[in-house]
Specification:
alpha+beta; globular
Amino acid sequence: MNSYECAIVFYPTVGDDGAKAGMAKYAGVIVSGGGELTRVESWGKRKLAFEIAHQGEGYYFFYKFRANREVLNELVRQFRIDETVLRHLIVRDEAAVGSEPKLELEGLQAVESGPKEGS
């Protein structure tokens, strides 16, 4: 399994609860496919650097995980058909050494906060 980082931006119209439900959905896709979450962060609603699809804001989430190619393909497929996802990006994490602790899905309700706006 390789290590990856994933950033997702949801449309602002989904609301806070809808964005958190989407975050949990994609965490479930990773785990159900045999992957392991190592970090999940909610960056909240933030202003975009430039408008995307006439949207100036979005809900940001960040994942670090280990998975095989099939899980990656399924994630990308679901991102493309999900109308609540404004933008996504997945990159391979070459610096990860594989010693990060695995997260459980039950613990995702208390997602740690990411960087604060203006930091």
